[in-house]
Amino acid sequence: MLRIEHLDKQYKTGDRALKDVNLEVPKGQVMALIGPSGAGKSTLIRCVNRLVEPTSGRIFLGDLELAHLGATDLRRARTRMGMIFQEYALVERLSVMENVLSGRLGYVGFWRSFFRKFPQSDIDEAFNLLARVGLDHMADKRADELSGGQRQRVGICRALIQNPDLLLVDEPTASLDPKTSRQIMRLICELCEERQLAAIINIHDVLLAQMFARRIVGLQLGSIVYDGPPENLNPDVLTQIYGEEDWEATIEKVKEEDEELDTAALLNIAKVHPPS
Amino acid sequence: MSQGASIRRWKRPPFIQNPTLRWGLWVGAAIYLSLAFGTMEINWDRVAEGAVRGERFLASFFPPDFVTRWDSIQDGILESLWMTITSTVIGIILSVPVGLGAARNLAYRPVYLFCRGILAVSRTFPEIILAIFFVKLFGFGPFAGFLALSVGTIGFYGKLLAEDIEDMDPVQAEAIKSVGAGWLQWLNYSVQPQVMPRMIGLGIYRLDINFRESAVVGIVGGGGIGATLLTSFDRYEFDSAAAILLVIIGIVMVLEYSSGYIRKWVQ
Q1: Domain positions in chain B
Q2: A59: part of which helix (H) or strand (E)?
Q3: How many CB atoms are located within 10 Å of the residue A55 CB?
Q4: CATH superfamily to which B70-266 belongs
């Protein structure tokens, strides 16, 4: 679904944030991108939807090459990529519903969006998504009245109503407490599964990454230094990504929680998809 | 074993590091102020005379006479209100594109410099200078006053709008851009909600300013209540002038209170 070839990004300040990154994410795969602050995780996903302009290299979404699109084509391509942000990035003075519907802006004309006259199908979908994340009763609340976890759920709805092929997720849990973090990660992974979405999730919390992603990519100083399943993350690999530290504790903890989680996940899936 | 050697003293570092410059500035300011006050000539005889005259002057304000000139007072007030409202609305409408262009995070460099130029020019001249200018161009009357206030409003509102846009949260704007919104949609969904409450408050504040300025521009020929006030002074009808001043004070207070109330309400 997403293929990145020889991607380079050098900022005007001279910092080389990405060095010859090659990466492929197939349809339906949830990939976690880990690495220390400043490794280039955020730059990488922002290069994909061109909120940051790549210096060189090619990015393919399906067959469409993104790195050299003109303004109109780029707008159209962005509708196919949903983005979820660290600080939720909801427009705080708009209502929950307006925030969700803003995900459809790439599909409706200016006057329709100006008068908030979205097609009925968009409104139905917005209510469906809000109901899915348990916030349909909050539709007319202003976004700044919500708690962190609720805001991130709205952010997820805004990304999904775009009907994207790819989710770009930038530190979704960095501002959330541990329990909410897990709920949000679980929600993102379930929704990707349901809709067969490819996703890149930037996350600095190794534990969470190992718990939820089937594939982990480690970025260090702009280069990929690890690409593989979460089970293969050993102290040597983590040292390579983050530097010297005692990693045994981290890895032990994940193994215990994994078992807990498997049962929890099973119960949860049974709840969400009742056998019909 | 001396204990004193281990004491580490600490003082807050001075704001200006260089001691010569620091003390030089203090001494320079002291010398200038003493010279400035020294050159001020006060003729106490004239002050005493003026005080007596002022007393008589104030006394002739009382009782204020609302009745004799009520018709021209009413006309002046209505004209001032008309001038205030039209110039505020037109000024704000015109200042929106200028303000958008003058926001560094929105506009390309040449557009930015051009719009900043417009704002700088219209802010250089106070309303009274603009009014004198427009009276020379278009003759006496409220039209000149209306133009002066409109231009003043563009400078005021455009600059504050541009600055508010520059201070907005870039992440919210980025999020709306990332969904593939067009430029106008992006303005409507991410910029406008962020700046709107403050802009409504400033609009009402400007209405308040324009009403007070409308009294000033009248004095140089721009029409409105200022013209009526000037006429009453010219005729030595100080009791009518007092009535006009009271009416102006009353309206300004009403605007003041309602603007405070509305600003709280839109937050």
Answers
A1: 70-266
A2: strand A56-61
A3: 15
A4: MetI-like (1.10.3720.10)
Q: What counts of helices (H) and strands (E) characterise chain B?
A: 11, 0
Task: State the ipTM, two decimals.
Answer: 0.84
Q: Do A93 and B188 count as a contact with CB atoms less than 8 A apart?
A: no
Interface test with A, best of B105, B169, B171, B172 (most A CBs within 10 A): B172
Q: What would the two tokens of residue B243 be? A: 């009535």
Query: DSSP alpha helices (H): ranges in B12-138?
Result: 19-39, 44-59, 70-101, 109-124, 127-138
Q: How far apart are CA A41 and CA A33, in angstroms?
A: 7
Q: What percent of chain B has pLDDT over 90?
A: 38
Residue B110, CA distances (Å) to A189, B92, B99, B106, B260 in order: 46, 23, 14, 12, 38
- CB–CB of A162 and B180 under 8 A? yes
Task: Kindly determine whether residue B185 and residue A110, on different chains, have CB atoms separated by under 8 Å.
Answer: yes
Tens digit of each residue's pLDDT (9 = 90 or more) over A249-271? 676 666 665 555 555 555 555 55
A93, A116, A144: best mutation site toward chain B, by most B Cβ within 10 Å? A93
A contacts of B172 (beta carbons < 8 Å): 89-92
**Buried-exposed string B130-151: b where 16+ CB fall within 10 A, e elsewhere:** bbbbbbeeeeebbbbbbbbbbb
